[in-house]
Amino acid sequence: MFERFTKDARAVVTGAVGYCERTGEQHVDEAHLLLALLDREGSRASFALASLGLTGRRDAVARDLAEARRRGGLSRADADALAGLGIDLTEIVSRIEEAHGEGALAASRRGGVRRTGRRPFTRGAKDLLTRSLRTALAHGDRHIGDEHLLLALTVRPGVASEVLADHGVTYTAVERVLWGGGEAKAG
């Protein structure tokens, strides 16, 4: 499938692997892909993100992703579901950090690298790449661009899509910017 990726989409995947390596994490996940998307310039996804006002808020997005990692990767929807069962996630995280140090749940996601030297992708990241192919095909595109990765991120349930939505980046908004609906279109 990687042969279908445009230069921009390949740069996002490579950038995500770089984020994973720099943070010492074992697996490349959706958050790494989102951070790599935010680094792009001059691409269709960067146009959409800029049009939706996300360009200047990269640090805020990174903080939101870091906070979710601190919660062990659980989204607010997960926390709300636990709260419905009478489980206070904030209290659990606090107790774990008292016993094991700040960021103990985030640190549990770190580990060694496979003997090949490559960091594998999480199931969620692999699903995201597959969904980006479906998104490209649905738009009549034979190749997967970084805009398709962005669209796939907006609909994949979890922390990355939640953070994007919190900053006004939804599937509908990206579609409107890229393919019409009264706003400027990316070329």
Quickly list its features.
187 residues; mainly alpha; Double Clp-N motif; 62% helix
Please describe what this structure looks like.
- InterPro entries: Clp_N_dom_sf (IPR036628), Clp_R_N (IPR004176).
- Keywords: Hydrolase, Protease, Repeat.
- This is Clp protease N-terminal domain-containing protein.
- Residues 2-187 form the Clp R domain.
- One of its GO terms (molecular function) is peptidase activity.
- The protein has 187 residues and is an all-alpha fold.
- It has a domain at 2-68 and 121-179: Orthogonal Bundle (Double Clp-N motif), CATH 1.10.1780.10.
- The protein is 62% helix and 0% strand.
- The protein has 11 helices and no strands.
- The protein has helices at residues 7-23, 30-39, 44-51, 58-70, 76-84, 89-100, 104-107, 123-138, 146-155, 159-166, 171-179.
- Helix 2 (30-39) crosses helix 9 and helix 9 (146-155) packs antiparallel against helix 11 (171-179).
- The longest helix has 17 residues, at 7-23.
- It starts with 6 loop residues before the first helix and ends in an 8-residue tail after the last helix.
- The model is unreliable at 107-115 (pLDDT under 50).
